[in-house]
Amino acid sequence: MKKHWYDYLWIWSIFYFAMGFFNILFAWLGMIDFFLPLALAIFGGNKFFCNHLCGRGQLFLKLGAGLKCSRNRPTPKWMYSTWFRYGFLLFFLTMFGNMVFQTYLVGAGASSLREAVQFFWTFRVPWDWAYSAGLTHDWVAQFSFGFYSLMLTSLILGLIVMVLFKPRSWCVLCPMGTMTQGVCKIRARGKVPAEKS
């Protein structure tokens, strides 16, 4: 099968997390993976990003299927359920909103910069080597720490379900995938011609 340029975007995932480890400000590049799927769904009405451009999904496939790191068990039905996917999306958006609020507090001077990455939104890991004070505004760095925490936590969750189930099981519950699917459904409804009376 012919390879396309986007078949190598799993390298982007590795690059992103590696660069964020050494300089937390690279976390801002992750916003591409946040806005591009939504833009393609809104203007294209499809999940092209999820199916072709998601470096994380490709990485899970590369590790799970290519390197045999997955048990390749069927993804549980409850993970496909609407209540679980939208519940997880709501939880993710709540965490994202809290991160934005913390960034606002630092920007407004009501809180000081927290140079730590949080795994699973709970475990704080000092990440101070990845940022030198004064490089940029504190709120910019605060957003970087918060966003990298979200991205790293979702990567770890994805790796866990990759090992336990099929390689791309994360794609079933991915918040971005759920949002783009919702956008595509709304667009599809808008294209249904009205019945003649």
Describe the model.
- The chain has helices spanning 10-22, 32-44, 48-53, 55-66, 77-80, 82-108, 138-164, 170-173, 175-190, and strands at 116-119, 123-126.
- It is mostly helical and 197 residues long.
- A two-stranded antiparallel ribbon has the order 1-2.
- A hairpin with a 3-residue loop joins β1 (116-119) and β2.
- The longest helix has 27 residues, at 82-108.
Structure at a glance:
The chain has 197 residues and is mostly helical. The protein has helices at 10-22, 32-44, 48-53, 55-66, 77-80, 82-108, 138-164, 170-173, 175-190, and strands at 116-119, 123-126.
Write the layout of secondary structure elements.
Layout: H1 10-22, H2 32-44, H3 48-53, H4 55-66, H5 77-80, H6 82-108, E1 116-119, E2 123-126, H7 138-164, H8 170-173, H9 175-190
Helix pairs in contact: 1-4, 2-9, 4-7, 6-7, 6-9
The end-to-end distance, rounded to whole angstroms, is 50 Å
Give the integer mean of the pLDDT values.
90
The helical percent reads 55-70%
Instruction: Provide a count of the helices.
Output: 9
Characteristic terms for this protein:
mainly alpha; globular; 197 residues
